[in-house]
Write a structure and sequence with these properties.
This protein has five helices and no strands. By secondary structure, it is an all-alpha fold. It has a single domain, classed as Up-down Bundle (Ferritin), CATH 1.20.1260. The radius of gyration is 16 Å and the shape is elongated.
Length: 152
């Protein structure tokens, strides 16, 4: 059985980083959405949480088609810490502005994971999918930033 190329191994690592960031993002959007007082933002966050789950499924499907079958789903320690910190800030009365600032930081990390992955060798179907998803992530980050600014 041939060994995978170094480029392919780097692509797998990059994709795992994106998947971990999406797990963090999905959980953060859900948890923050449940804590937001603004009903419009609450709905947006819960919808975006579901969108992150869809993104994960799309990536996993294309990776399976490309021959990657051992996909770990764990998220990151930093993402877990960030969600705990957001929960603590909410309990201490941080309000929507504080929650939105925390969400923005998380979206910055998710966008960075996509950027790092795009710097790797990626098969064309994976690159095309990530390009589309990254554009959505960046629009979402801009929306969260604008909402945070309005609440500030």
């Amino acid at each position: 059985m041939p060994q995978p190329s170094r480029e392919f191994e780097q692509a797998e690592l990059a994709m795992q980083s994106v998947l971990d960031s999406l797990i963090d993002s999905q959980e953060a959007f859900q948890q923050i959405g449940e804590k937001l007082k603004d009903e419009t933002l609450k709905h947006y966050f819960l919808t975006e949480s579901l969108r992150r789950a869809e993104f994960r499924g799309e990536i996993e499907s294309v990776l399976h088609r490309e021959g990657v079958h051992d996909i770990k789903e764990s998220g990151t320690a930093a993402g877990t810490a960030q969600r705990v910190w957001a929960g603590l800030k909410a309990k201490l009365g941080g309000g929507d502005h504080t929650l939105l600032a925390t969400a923005e930081e998380g979206e910055d990390e998710t966008a960075a994971a996509y950027d790092r992955a795009m710097d790797s060798y990626l098969p064309l179907p994976v690159r095309q999918l990530l390009t589309t998803q990254a554009a959505h992530i960046k629009l979402s980050r801009d929306y969260v930033r604008a909402a945070r600014d309005r609440k500030g």
